[in-house]
Amino acid sequence: MQIDIKKYKTIVFDCDGVVLDSNLVKTAAYFRTAKNLGATDTEAQALVDYHVRLGGISRYHKFDYYLREILHQPVTDVAIQALLDEFSRELEVGLMQCAVADGLVDLRKATPQANWMILSGGDQQEIRTLFDKRNLSHFFDGGLFGSPDNKDTVLAREKTNGNLHYPALFVGDSKYDFEAATRAGLDFVFLSDWTEVADWQMFCQVNQIRVLNNLMSLL
Fold first, then answer.
1. Which of 63, 97, 131 is the last residue of a domain?
2. Exposed (0-12), middle (13-18) or buried (19+): which is 109, by Cβ within 10 Å?
3. What is the pTM of this model?
4. In the chain, which stretches have pLDDT less than 50?
5. Domain count across the chain
6. 120-148 pLDDT tens trace
7. Any idea of the CA torsion for 103, 107, 108, 110, to the nearest 10 degrees?
8. Is the distance from CB of 117 to CB of 9 less than 8 angstroms?
9. Are residues 37 and 133 located together in one domain of the fold?
10. Which range of residues forms the domain containing residue 202?
11. 133 and 201 in one domain?
12. Max Cα separation, the chain?
């Protein structure tokens, strides 16, 4: 059944794996960040495994877990900031080079009634800078949002301030995207082409989630 994309007043997009083919870029950056700061291969891989398992969750939470549960070290502001800074350096080149989803321009033209938002687990300022550099910001008239606020917090805030209008659609590629959308009362579509969710087919089947390959499939 074709989605009636024109009925939505707001469309919320996850960034990595939805608008940008950047999931693998970020996964590699987590590994290199840990290694650059002295981790063993085993410790670095444990961080990667946790990152993949919690797709869509803020890096702040992941680095807190990494320090506390993997390295068994104190979680200090200094330690978190060192990880964040190194991670940003590792990401910068890859995010400038990764592919943008086909169909973005056509989908924007097809939905003039909707305001568009980016809602990412990535760092908010990093996303805004990246989208400006890649000339993508103008598509998302509803704003570009990310961590340290989590997706539940952003959705609740944007609903309260009148920026999120219903009916609304969330387009994502992670379990957390679906859960956040459901809690906020948004319809949800799962995009499968670039997802890193290993059991996405079973997850979507159990939760009766509509699955499409990519943004082009929304047209």
1. 97
2. exposed
3. 0.88
4. none
5. 2
6. 988 899 999 999 999 999 999 999 999 88
7. 140
8. no
9. no
10. 5-20+99-218
11. yes
12. 51
Domain shared by 120 and 33, yes or no? no
Q: Quick check: 119 and 74 in contact, CB under 8 A?
A: no
Amino acid at 116: W
Q: How far is CA 28 from CA 34, 57, 107, in A?
A: 10, 16, 30
Q: What percent of the chain has pLDDT over 70?
A: 100
Q: Does 182 lie in the same domain as 103? A: yes
Amino acid of residue 193 = D
Q: Answer yes or no: do 78 and 157 share one domain.
A: no
Separation between Cα atoms, residue 97 and residue 174, nearest integer Å: 22
CATH number, domain with residue 121: 3.40.50.1000
- Residue located via tokens 């964040």: 84
Could you tell me the sign of the dihedral formed by the alpha carbons of 93, 97, 98, 104, in that order?
Answer: positive
Number of other residues whose CB lies within 10 A of the CB of residue 78 = 7
